Amino acid sequence: MGDIARILIVDDDENIRKVLTAILEDEGYSAESSGTAKSAIEKTKRNFYNLALIDIRLPDMEGIELLTRIHETTPRMRKIIITGYPTLQNAMGAVNRGADAYILKPFDMEKVLETIKDQLRKQAEEKKYSQEKVAEFIEARVKELSVETKVKDKKNP
Predict the structure, then answer these.
(1) Which CA distances in Å does 149 have to 58, 139, 140, 141, 146?
(2) pLDDT of 29-74, one tens digit each?
(3) Which of 43, 47, 89, 138 is at 20 to 30 A from 157, Cα to Cα?
(4) Phi, psi (5° rounding) for residue 42?
(5) Is 118 exposed, middle or buried, given 0-12, 13-18 or 19+ CB atoms closer than 10 A?
(6) SS3 for 93?
(7) What number of CA atoms fall less than 13 Å from residue 14's CA on the CB side?
């Protein structure tokens, strides 16, 4: 990806935040954490994050609600729900609200790291695709303007 990926960890358990932060930083990522949804929202307003790991149960808001709120501040950020309360309803709610992945506690750290790498790869592919589409649009628009200018010049010699 070139740049160091920035990851936001949102979990009310301080020990989980500390462990995940340490592991992610050891893996070469820049990691920050938040214990509440409100502080996570504020962080996403001030900083860019490539990815967020969001606990489904937070003291001030459900993680699924936070998915929607964070999408408003950072729409292209990849979002992974983490939960110790796996239910079909939680999984469906998370996917319907924009979660890109769903991880169960207790963590299998290899799976967590694999999921993060996969989500960052998908984000990079989306960015490249978006840049290509913008370039295609600009090239097409330049051609259109060139034709419009030639037509206008022929009408007004």
Answers:
(1) 58, 15, 14, 12, 5
(2) 999 999 999 999 999 999 999 999 999 999 999 998 999 899 888 8
(3) 138
(4) -60, -40
(5) middle
(6) helix
(7) 0
